[in-house]
Specification:
Number of helices: 2
Order of helices and strands: HH
Strand content: under 5%
Structural class: mainly alpha
Largest sheet: none
Shape: elongated
Keywords: Membrane, Transmembrane, Transmembrane helix
Radius of gyration: 14 Å
Distance between the termini: 15 Å
Helix content: over 70%
Oligomer: single chain
Mean pLDDT: 90
Amino acid sequence: MKRWVLLVVGVVLALIGVLWTLQGSNIITGSGMSGQRQWFLIGLIALVVGIGLVISQARRKTERS
């Protein structure tokens, strides 16, 4: 059960990371985060951590099978 929770958290974190990165790079406009370098960097960090969680949980699942 814990694997599924971490997998979902990883996917959500990666999606939020993509959104924040696009807002920070001013591709998505209309918010206070648009064009802000700090949100670009925070988004990249969130994206990398999210992808890392997804990959680690996918590997863990296949190792147990």
